[in-house]
Amino acid sequence: MPRKLVVTLCSLLVVAAMGVGALLISLLSDLPQLSGMHDYRPPVISKVYDRNGELIARFFKQRRTVVPREQMPDRLVKAFLAAEDADFYEHSGVDLSGLLAAVLTEIKHQLLGSARRGGSTITQQTAKTFLLTPEQTYDRKIKEMVLAWKIEQAFTKDEILFLYLNQIYFGNGAYGVEEAAQTYFGKHVGELTLAECAVLASIPKSPNRINPIYNPNRTLERRAYVLQQMEKRGFAPPDEVAEAMKAPLLRERPPAEYLNRTPYYAEDIRQHLIGKYGEEMVYQQGLVAYAAVDARMDVAAHRALRQGLAEADKRMGYRGPLMRLDADVRRNFLTAVQQEMEDRLPRDPVERAQLVWDLSRVDPKVAERSPQEAAEQVRLAHKDPGSLVGVVVVKVDSAADTVTVDLGTTRGTMEFSTMKWARANRYGDLGPTPRDPADVLQEGDVVLVRLLEDKASKGAATGLLVALEQYPRVQGAVVAVEPETRRVRAMVGGWDFARSSFDRATMARRQPGSAFKPFIYAAAIQSRVVTPASILVDAPKVFADKGAGRDWKPENSDGRFRGDIRLRECLTHSVNICSITLVESLTPEKVVELATRVGLGEKWPMNLTLALGTGEVTPLKLANAYATFADEGRYGEPVIVEKVKTVDGTVLEEADVRKVDVLDPATAYVTLSMMQSVVESGTAWRIKELGRPVAGKTGTTNDARDAWFVGCVPGLCTAVYVGMDNHEPMGPQEAGGRAAAPVFLEFYRTILQGAPIREFPVPEGVEHHEVDPRTGLLAAEGQTDALREVFISGTAPTERAVPAEDRPPDDWREGDL
Predict the structure, then answer these.
(1) Distance of alpha carbon 284 from its chain centroid, rounded?
(2) Mean pLDDT of the region 652-665
(3) Taking Cα atoms as reference points, which of 188, 256, 253, 190 lies closest to residue 52?
């Protein structure tokens, strides 16, 4: 070779080397530092627990729970090595053989367009995840390799695995192996089987495409590959691999029983934490909050409220189907849905049979415009009794009194008996009771149904039994407070948090109506103006209302007047005239003073309409005010948050209830006693079914815009509110005893099942006497119709009633009974 050519080639090589060197210097001059990896503090979850230690809520930027390397089972680590980097413990950050294969594959890709192959080690992926962007460029790849080498010098192999396995994303919002284990299998990472470990190792390659929930078939293929690699590398014995190959992808995994099942309560906790500690602390640094809620109780309250709201809403008629599609639109839409479901439904026939489609979230306009886009709005739902799903009516059989509906994976039968409630609602007016399924539904309707029973599972051919439903317009709230501790054990603010996050338990200010009356009676009893045996006159009367500056001639809600009536009966039957008489005697100021002291606020009308509960109050405040009666006259602020700690255990706050005496214990007990009569023989008679002492009061405002029942058993006081968000009337048939009391009854029937019957404790300063029901005086000797009445000591009447045989014929005037 000529000397000149050699010199030229050498010069070119030197220039090239200098260029490569300059490029490397440029690339490596701004390499990220490893300091953040040494002090690994990723965003972690804030967790909320109920009174029994049940996990009920999590707040996070990234849903991650960091676990030490020693808590990760060996089979999990080996699954990841088999899937990603089998020679992890041998190389120094870069696998040269794997890198060479990746380079050759890249050349082939550039020349022929063949598929690419990754050559990154776990250390390189750690460098990319922590320190670099995900873009696929040669510059980034060079930086990744250099950083991998530096990481290997700074950390042990197990420390690298700790960082990698806690940081990576697993789909469905789960970061790190612990949250992935909880998300897909409902268990801690240390409890995973070999098959489950292989599934987790399959996901990070492509979390959106290889996903056990949304892409089960692709995940099974990837799991098989990981298991084969584990056997090939000697990471797992053949018999265990063979067993893991046959394991179902996702078993029925019991999630945390109450996680995300107390949404209104959890939202109040979230707002409290953010308001006090800021979003960064809540979403990234992690807090541990202990709520006063009893999750079992809250779930029971939500179930009872949903049942009560559905029943009240059905009494207002049927508002029609979710969608009514013409034949062509329906055909195109259902074809698109079937194609979409085939991609998302599992292949396993057993798993497939557990699911049905739900069309309730499909936008009718989208269905007409773009069937494929509408099909993507369809979700899959488990075939659980009680579930609400949207389905298509495919046949209306008037002769058989049935309707057939399509649920995607099966057909369902709706019997006419489940839709007789569906009187057409036309601008608030109800049509006639339907006599035929065709009066309600027609083919092509998309309707909401409740799943009842799977007849197919019992060998019949009728498939699922379903019942017609509709999402209620009427809303409500339930709040349960423990009087002695003031812990709020349940707080539900509506039908469905996902459909409306407005918390009616804490935010809806509504008129309590007659549910306010017990505070009027308590003020009167404590002032010694009256006793439960005092006689008031229930008759037409014009009141000079100085506060309102006008005369007022009120009526009772039922339009009747009862003449002379004992105070207990006044409250039992919610007689308006009695309450107005008491407010007039006490003065509105005196009543508002008591209302303020029990936490109901000062914004109440300073006139006689106060007797009808014309101020405004939230269900939480009203429930807590009633708890004062059950707590022997003591008032304390309600407690929602028990304690808040940092993840390292530092206590940031802890509840401390300070109580004040508002009523003397005897007054509180006498008022409770009168409220028991409301249940035993008054407007809340439905509650008698509980078969235990309950003290409470119904409330209904004008035109039934608001309906209430607030009641206490020993140890728990609960307010139930039902009404329209826009204050529309619910209809003349609705009242507190009909709309709200059944919710209370169903709630307490659930939570008190098997509990011993308790009486309200009798405080000192109370005495009982037999009284004459007509005059309220002490009963005559041997009087057979005498009633046992309760009094604050020293306030009982001293005069005895005239014996029946000595009583003149006109001694008692019944009035308008």
Answers:
(1) 23
(2) 97
(3) 256
Segment (H or E) for 38? helix 35-38
- Residues labelled catalytic: 84, 514
Decide: 800 and 780 in contact? Cβ < 8 Å: yes
* pLDDT tops 90 at residue 341: no
pLDDT mean over 178-183: 93
The residue with tokens 């690339």 is 27
CB atoms within 10 A of CB 555: 11
Structure tokens at 530: 């009256």
The Cα-based distances of 618 to 59, 134, 606, 708, 807 in angstroms read: 27, 51, 19, 11, 50
In the predicted model, is pLDDT for residue 808 greater than 90? no
Residue 41, Cβ neighbours under 10 Å: how many? Answer: 10
Min mean pLDDT across 87-96, 106-115, 467-476, 729-738 is at 106-115
Residue-wise pLDDT tens digits, 371-408: 999 999 999 998 989 999 999 999 999 999 999 999 99
Token digits of residue 543: 């009141």
| Closest to 490 measured CA to CA, from 474, 475, 506, 502 | 506
pLDDT digits (tens, 9 = 90+) for 25-72: 444 555 677 766 877 888 889 999 999 999 999 999 889 989 999 999
Q: Are 511 and 760 in contact (CB under 8 A)?
A: no
- pLDDT tens, 432-451? 999 999 999 999 999 999 99
3-state helix, strand, coil in the chain (%, to 5): 40, 20, 40
405: closest CA among 362, 465, 338?
A: 465
| Lookup: tokens for 644 | 């808040």
Backbone angles phi, psi at 484, to 5 degrees: -65, -35
Give the per-residue pLDDT at 185: 92
Calpha distance 674→578 (Å, rounded): 14
* Cα-based distances in Å from 165 to 40, 79, 95, 253, 774: 13, 12, 19, 22, 80
CB 726 within 8 A of CB 707: no
> Token pair for residue 686?
């439905």
Q: Give, in degrees to the nearest 5, the angle at Cα 113 between 112 and 117.
A: 110
d(CA 714, CA 632): 11
Looking at residue 461, what is its pLDDT? 47
Structure letter (DSSP) for residue 792? E
- Burial (Cβ within 10 Å: 0-12, 13-18, ≥19) of residue 182: buried
Q: What phi and psi, each to the nearest 5 degrees, are found at residue 671?
A: -65, -45
Nearest 10 degrees: Cα torsion 214, 220, 223, 228: -170
* Cα–Cα distance for residue pair 65/188, rounded to 1 Å: 11
Q: Mean pLDDT, the chain, as a whole number?
A: 89
323 to 248, 330, 391, 447, 715: CA distances (angstroms): 38, 10, 10, 7, 47
pLDDT in tens, 124-168: 888 888 877 666 565 667 777 888 888 899 999 999 999 999 999
Give the list of residues 6+ apart from residue 575 with CB closer than 8 angstroms, or none.
538, 556, 562, 565, 569
Contact 560, 577 (CB under 8 A): no
pLDDT score, position 100: 52
Average pLDDT on 318-332 reads 90
Report residue 701 CA to chain centroid gap: 28
Q: Is 488 helix (H, G, I), strand (E, B) or coil?
A: strand
